[in-house]
Design goal:
Blueprint (H helix, E strand, L loop, with lengths): L2 H22 L4 H20 L15 H13 L5 H21 L4 H8 L16 H9 L6 H16 L3 H6 L5 E2 L6 E5 L5 E5 L2 H14 L12 E4 L2 E4 L2 H17 L11 H13 L4 H8 L4 H8 L4 H9 L3 H7 L3 H7 L3
Antiparallel strand pairs: 1-2, 2-3, 4-5
Helix pairs in contact: 1-2, 2-4, 4-5, 7-9, 7-11, 11-12, 12-13
Length: 339
């Protein structure tokens, strides 16, 4: 391996992260950081486990057998979750795909990487709040403090719009359009794609009260909708603020006698909203638009299954008496015993 090969790898990696993803693809800073961490994780593995100096790393270090050893190491030695392992392998393949488009001789390396099967993950039940739990959670910030008022608006906003925490953090006052014929909010989602979400009448009333209290002094268009004040300066909220908030109110609900899932997090509100709409018969295509999923398969993979109550209602529509009578019908018996 020559110094030229080493320099090519590092230059290409920097070009991919700092120019291709940021400028050409215009993906979010969070996504770029995630891809950077994934690549750095593999580089650290090469250095610490494969004993390959950073000065000697090249695209040849991404051979199929090396990647398979890395995948096995993540599972057996590090004990990482299948989702984490697969995410890191996906980031490596995405980088190799970019490199192969720049240098054709890398294409076989990329093709080999694509042939590595992902770590099989168990299908877990979707985490969401039952109707009574969601109602209790929305009512939990019942105090008269300004923080409680803001937090209740955040919970209502998360539920009504089914927005991600990252999307909610980025919402500015100018993204709220209450004067439109159909009032809506503009969200900036994954891949820097915008989508407009209509606001319900009750939510509009809450938003108007919130704006009057928190943005009454002629806010600038770039002021965060949800913020905190430190030494008189407005600052956007961190993701940790959101997560700590929902855990605190979930604990309050438990104290008040309401049942709550064990591991509560904000993303459950988004899933709850989608699940509630699904229960009410809203078409998956509409739920897909609300959630900002690029492919309908992503939406159907998460929500297109019969929940217990939906399944129970479907089963109740069957009349047991009529079912028993049909067994004695000769035509029915003939159909049942035919291949």
């Amino acid at each position: 391996m020559s110094k030229k090969d080493n320099a090519l790898f590092w230059d290409t990696a920097r070009q991919y992260l700092d120019h291709h993803l940021k400028v050409i693809r215009q993906v979010s800073g969070h996504t770029i950081d995630s891809y950077r961490d994934c690549l750095n994780s593999f580089i650290n593995y090469l250095e610490e486990v494969e004993h390959t100096s950073r000065k000697k790393i090249s695209f040849n270090s991404f051979g199929k057998e090396t990647l398979k050893r890395y995948q096995a190491w993540m599972v057996t030695e590090r004990g990482l979750a299948p989702k984490t392992c697969n995410l890191r392998m996906t980031a490596i393949r995405a980088f190799l795909e970019y490199a192969a488009q720049e240098y054709l001789w890398i294409m076989p390396i990329y093709t080999d990487a694509c042939g590595i099967a992902g770590v099989k993950a168990a299908n877990h039940a979707i985490e969401y709040f039952e109707p009574g739990e969601m109602t209790a959670l929305l009512a939990a910030p019942s105090g008269n403090s300004k923080t409680d008022c803001r937090n209740q608006m955040i919970l209502i906003f998360l539920y009504d719009t089914a927005a991600r925490v990252a999307e909610t953090r980025q919402v500015k006052v100018s993204d709220i359009h209450l004067e439109a014929e159909v009032p809506y909010v503009t969200l900036l989602g994954k891949g820097r794609k915008y989508r407009n979400i209509p606001l319900l009448e009750k939510t509009i009333l809450h938003v108007k009260r919130y704006l009057k209290e928190f943005h009454a002094s002629g806010p600038k268009s770039d002021t965060p909708l949800f913020y905190s004040k430190v030494h008189g300066e407005i600052h956007g909220l961190s993701s940790d603020t959101f997560e700590k908030m929902i855990k605190r109110y979930a604990d309050k609900c438990r104290t008040d006698g309401y049942s709550m899932p064990d591991n509560v997090h904000c993303h459950m509100i988004r899933k709850t909203r989608a699940m509630d709409l699904y229960r009410e018969g809203v078409p998956l295509a509409h739920i897909q638009q609300l959630l900002g999923h690029e492919n309908i398969s992503t939406t159907s993979g998460f929500y297109a299954f019969a929940t217990l109550d939906v399944l129970a209602k479907a089963m109740e529509t069957v009349n047991p008496d009529e079912g028993v009578k049909s067994w004695s019908d000769p035509d029915t018996l003939e159909r049942l015993y035919r291949l």
